[in-house]
Design brief:
Elements (H helix, E strand, L loop, with lengths): L4 E5 L4 E6 L6 E2 L4 E5 L2 H25 L4 H23 L3 H27 L10 H25 L3 H23 L3 H26 L2 E3 L4 E6 L6 E2 L4 E6 L5 E6 L11 E6 L2 E18 L4 E8 L12 E5 L3
Helix pairs in contact: 1-6, 2-5, 3-4
Length: about 325
Amino acid sequence: MAVAIVPVVAEVAGQLQEVTVAVGDSVKQGDLLVRIDSTVAEAQRAQAQAALELAQSQVELAKTQPQPSDVAAAEAAVDAARAGYNRALQGATDEEKRMVLAQLKQAEAAVSIYQGQYDRIAGNPYAAMMPEALQLQQATLAKEAAQAQYDKVLKGATADQIAAAYAALTGAQAQLARLKRGAEPAQIKAAEAGVKQAEAAVYLAQLQLDKTDVHAPADGFIYQLDAVEGSMAGPGTVLAIIFSHDAKIVIQVEESRYQDIAVGQPVSIRVDAYADRTFAGEVSAIAPTFDYAKRTVQVTVRPTEGAAELKPGMFATVTLLEP
């Protein structure tokens, strides 16, 4: 039998796109055996890389000092919010009151004009369908809107409006303070931790991508091949079995002969495939325990010559020689 029997197992799920070996092929450790569809793994790698770049930009942003233009814009926002809050507290100015009153009077005058025009055609059975009716309706709506605006200005801001204006002011002031102060050490530390986390995600994504190419884990030859192009595989699916080129023979020796065997003891090996030849070998290992039922001990023999000709599965006869 082979000294080493190594199963080749898929570690990721996907369709088998390419199988590069056949049964009996000799392979070296690291040779490509099977290629699994990598579309999903590549997308996950790209997504992880994008997340890493975002995390790195957040660290750079946290460490960057604010530009004068940014500070000026934040200060202007504070001034605007303060002015809005003051207007909400103080109510409308005399000028604003005069303006809305003028708009209301203008709307009332328009209604009076259009009302007169409508009165002249009111007796017409089709008066409701004539332009004068539509003009009067539009003027009436404009007057109602002007009246509502006038009433609102005279009444002043409500408690909710004042609270909203104050919230806008405090928010603008806080934003200006944060901008001038810069990021806190804890914030920078958290951003740097985010970079490390993203780097780990990229590493894991790359590992998954690398596993879509299945390589030979050891030297040997393909004893069994279960991988078929186009089929699906999942983690744990056995794709192939590799036997090492080196062979060993396991024999059972009677307990009564235990004192006659030793590691390194020469042996002769005969196989049916080469009936006219004898291969030299030696004892390479002796099991530390006995088979209680058979009263035997397991002995491992390795050929020292012609190993390439002795294949796993051959029937062999071993003769223990004198040291």
